[in-house]
Write a structure and sequence with these properties.
Glucose Oxidase, domain 1; 11 helices; 14-stranded mixed β-sheet; Aminopeptidase; globular; alpha/beta
Length: 435
């Protein structure tokens, strides 16, 4: 290891949202670094469409007729209001309990957080007219925070979207103190086609070249973040892994992928799986890196595979002397797309201590990044990859246990999850593309 990994991360620590020139610049820089190592990367472009907010307004109407405007953003892919806006009663929905859900029909509700598919279904069934979710913390100020542009994740074929907005947490407090009886909201969106790209490198295997291990990380960021922690670190660590593989050729073929547009709905990994559908049967497993390099926090190994795979991961940590915890679950990252298609995955990430996290904020920069932590993470990534790429028999079976299959179906939605067609506990077979 060397300081190169830190320097590469510093070089791409600029805001690089999906489909922007900055995202393209980051991809080109990383590709250039890969060429310096001695591999020839392939850029695979893809496009997707989304409805982007171009105008979003929210005005609280109090019992005495006072009207108070609050800054908001609209959610991508949510529904437009009428041209002049919509007005409806306001309700603060503290929880989705049965009593609360009887009081939301025809109203615009304020929520604490983003919605799962199940929660969205319940709110639509309850008849909400729209919703407002929050970003940031109650200690923010307008000067030190950014108003997030969220995304309606639940484009369900049997449920129409509703107008949806994001408000700062500090403004949500002001909104509640104003005691509005109604909200007047306006949202206008336009459909846009976004072009992004994945960068793929093939490291040929030797005697087990017909079997493939995919390793990857996304390199895009949210609009106002420099994306050092999330996830420039993971991208830089994948480049460092390629440097290791250059001098330590694997027995199995390793395909390293730097994914674009993860932050807009795992778009890059979905596009890659779709483009490489005929190769999925040969992929034995996937290793993903998402969030790392911070001097604060703990290392976490997310195992989306059978129980024995988590045991195997724990043993590897002991053998390597690497300080980390394991958990058997679906990580909200590119690895989930592979596991949804029956491919077991192991994801490396970091958990921040209370008050020490800065994901999706302007403070995700190089201030808390540690070269020592980056090198330790990259070192374990190399050990993990070596073990998987060189084992006589791949140590993790292509089995997605029922509890994780159900979690994947909940995560992607029954109508969009490939795992929904996978029989329980059956050894994985190539699955058709469903996104």
């Amino acid at each position: 290891m060397s300081s190169a990994i830190y320097e590469r991360l510093a070089a791409i620590s600029f805001s690089r949202p999906s489909g922007t020139r900055e995202e393209k610049n980051a991809a080109e820089f990383l590709a250039g670094e890969i060429r310096r190592i001695g591999f020839e990367p392939e850029e695979e472009s893809f496009t997707y469409t989304q409805r982007v907010p171009v105008r979003a307004e929210l005005t609280a109407v109090t019992a005495n007729g006072e009207r108070i405007a609050f800054p908001v953003t609209g959610l991508i892919d949510s529904a437009d209001t009428a041209p002049g806006g919509d007005e409806a009663e306001f309700h603060y929905l503290k929880s989705l309990d049965e009593v609360s859900l009887t009081r939301v029909r025809g109203k615009i509700v304020l929520l604490h957080d983003r919605l799962s598919e199940e929660e969205y279904r319940r709110l639509r069934k309850a008849g909400i007219a729209g919703y407002v979710t929050t970003s940031g913390t109650v200690r923010d100020t307008p000067e030190n925070s950014d108003l997030e542009t969220g995304r309606l994740r639940h484009q369900l074929p049997d449920l129409d979207a509703v107008p949806a907005f994001t408000i700062r947490m500090i403004d949500a407090v002001r909104l509640l103190r104003a005691r509005p009886v109604k909200l007047h909201v306006l949202l206008q969106t336009e459909e846009r086609t976004v072009r992004s790209q994945n960068v793929t490198v093939v490291v040929p295997g030797s005697d087990k070249a017909a079997e493939t291990l995919v390793v990857g990380a996304h390199y895009d960021s949210v609009p106002f973040s420099l994306g050092a922690w999330d996830n420039g670190a993971g991208a830089a660590e994948i480049v460092e892994l390629l440097s290791h593989l250059r001098t330590h050729p694997p027995r199995r073929t390793v395909k390293a992928v730097l994914f674009g547009s993860e932050e807009t709905g795992l778009r890059g990994s979905k596009a890659w799986v779709q483009a490489h559908e005929n190769e999925l049967a040969d992929i034995q497993g996937m290793v993903n890196v998402d969030v790392g390099g911070s001097i604060l926090g703990k290392e976490i190994v997310f195992v989306t595979a059978e129980d024995d795979a988590e045991v195997w991961a724990r043993q590897l940590l002991l053998e390597a002397g690497y300080e980390a915890v394991t958990t058997q679950r679906v990580m909200s990252s590119d690895s989930a797309v592979f596991s949804d298609h029956g491919i077991p995955s192991v994801s490396l990430g970091q958990g921040a201590p209370r008050g020490g996290g800065y994901m999706h904020t302007r403070y995700d920069n190089m201030d808390l990044i540690s070269a020592d932590v980056l090198e330790a993470e990259a070192g374990f990534l190399a050990q993990l990859t070596d073990r998987l790429a060189n084992a006589e028999v791949f140590p993790i079976r292509r089995v997605i246990p029922e509890k994780l299959r159900k979690e994947l179906i909940r995560y992607f939605g029954k109508d969009k999850s490939a795992a929904a067609s996978l029989p329980p506990e059956e050894e994985a077979k190539p699955l058709p593309f469903h996104f």
